[in-house]
Amino acid sequence: MNSDSKIYVAGHRGMVGSAIVRELKRKGYNNLVLRTHAELDLCRQDEVEQFFATERPEYVFLAAAKVGGIIANQTAPADFMYQNMMLEMNVIHAAWQHGCKRLEFLGSSCIYPRLAPQPMREDCLLTSPLEPTNEAYALAKISGLKYCEYLNRQYGTDFLSVMPTNLYGPNDNYHPEHSHVLPALIRRFHEAKVSGLHEVVCWGDGSPLREFLYVDDLAELALHLMEHYHGNETVNAGTGKEITIKELTETVARIVGYEGAVTWDTSRPNGTPRKLLDVSKATSLGWTAKTPLEEGIRLTYQDFLNNPMRAER
Given pLDDT bands bounded at 50, 70 and 90, which one contains residue 67? Predict the structure, then answer.
């Protein structure tokens, strides 16, 4: 890519897409093509085809997705599968048809088996069953990854896939039911502090281990790979470090300033017991995550405070 390359960021208003836009601008890429959902419905094949035929982007970052936490995934699996599958296939297919030089597909570490060997290497994909609570979303992401692989193999495209671990950071979704664990905790403890609640009840028993990557670190890797990596293999994006949900909860409570009690509802699901990525491939390509977890949580909480309307999404 060069500074004049025409670059389309799908999902530029979301947490990942907005971070990629920030990183592109920081590195001097200014010929960006951006569309809101109201301007371009990626689930509509005719709209996507017309967009690519008209705009002819040279590079595509596919960061658009329907995302959510355990409740959202369990409540609406059909929606998660349909919307993600449709938008991915439409964008990837149109990028191939209209001669895009490169496309980068952003997936999720939930594509890997529930009980995969830890840390999870890229080649453990499809070796055993998925986590049931987010199976629909995972299947859609696997399909996007595999379609990129098949296009590379059959038609010689240069498309790549990146599978990040649990992400957080500016412009996250803080919805009380549809958000992921870290932004959900930020909102719950903030509201508990403001309301003077003496207790916050959290799901499960706090034992699952999770890895968290600050979204601006992912954006740096996304550009690094687009500029330098050529290959048909998926690349994991993570920190290589993990923390229990209990430790995470205590950390968020401390940063937010909540001083009440935290109790655990063990009738609720824990989700996957452990989910740590092997990031040796990304490291070998010259990238390492930079933002310590506590610093990232502080930055994210400040973003939450500065943008109260995000809590309504």
Answer: confident
